[in-house]
Amino acid sequence: MAAYSNENPFASTHSLDANPFDDPEAQQEAERQARLQELSARERDLERREAELNQKAEHIRVHGRNNWPFFYPLIFHSIKDEIPEASQPLITRLYQLWLVLFGTLIINFVACIFVLVAGSSDGGADLGASIGYCFTITIFSFLLWYRPIYNGYMKEQALYYYMYFIFCGFHLLYSAYMIIGIPSTGSAGLVQTIKMYGGGHIVAGILGTIATVGWVLQGAGNAYYYREIWMHHKAAGHTMEKAKGELATHGAKAYFTRG
């Protein structure tokens, strides 16, 4: 009589067919391999981006020259040549928002002239402050939040992202301050605009309305992209430790260099 066997004749001898839940070690090994593959893919992507940036930097070093601002070039600014293709639309939008900010500062200045002409007791203070904003905010906004995030996406270094988050955060608060438009603050925002319409100063009111719309547009736009950039920054794995290491390695001169 043949011996009875408990072995299942339909059981597969291939390990790939085994249920991973029956073997915790196999499941852990599979997860480890998946993580290794993900890290390897990310490393290859970083190497590819580094090669592209080096190639672009060399091209710019040989062929490029300072081109911004156009009337007195001080720096090289080319989103097409320096920013990875996938990030070019975002940086383009941020640059456009900076241009909206610049235009809003000019309109705000003109509006404050009309506020002074309208006989406002705070007109002199408003005009003086608005002139100061045209110079200081234009320059500092470009250098302290637009240029850092431009460099951040160009070089993918954590230091620039933290600079952007700090100074663009202050800029968002400043935008809210200018939208309100308290008299004597140099803003032709809401309060100032309503005051001008109420006094029958239509031109000053219209200019104040345009300035207010400009403050809202660039403020809301920057707030939206601030969130988008924060999500990218987290996904990229940037940390304060990395930022400190980059500052120690490259120093402040990295702000002014390409590649």
TrEMBL record:
<feature type="transmembrane region" description="Helical">
    <location>
        <begin position="202"/>
        <end position="225"/>
    </location>
</feature>
<dbReference type="GO" id="GO:0015031">
    <property type="term" value="P:protein transport"/>
</dbReference>
<feature type="transmembrane region" description="Helical">
    <location>
        <begin position="158"/>
        <end position="182"/>
    </location>
</feature>
<feature type="compositionally biased region" description="Polar residues">
    <location>
        <begin position="1"/>
        <end position="16"/>
    </location>
</feature>
<keyword id="KW-1133">Transmembrane helix</keyword>
<keyword id="KW-0472">Membrane</keyword>
<protein>
    <recommendedName>
        <fullName>Scamp-domain-containing protein</fullName>
    </recommendedName>
</protein>
<feature type="transmembrane region" description="Helical">
    <location>
        <begin position="127"/>
        <end position="146"/>
    </location>
</feature>
<dbReference type="GO" id="GO:0055038">
    <property type="term" value="C:recycling endosome membrane"/>
</dbReference>
<dbReference type="Pfam" id="PF04144">
    <property type="entry name" value="SCAMP"/>
</dbReference>
<dbReference type="GO" id="GO:0032588">
    <property type="term" value="C:trans-Golgi network membrane"/>
</dbReference>
<feature type="transmembrane region" description="Helical">
    <location>
        <begin position="97"/>
        <end position="121"/>
    </location>
</feature>
<dbReference type="InterPro" id="IPR007273">
    <property type="entry name" value="SCAMP"/>
</dbReference>
<keyword id="KW-0812">Transmembrane</keyword>
<feature type="region of interest" description="Disordered">
    <location>
        <begin position="1"/>
        <end position="33"/>
    </location>
</feature>
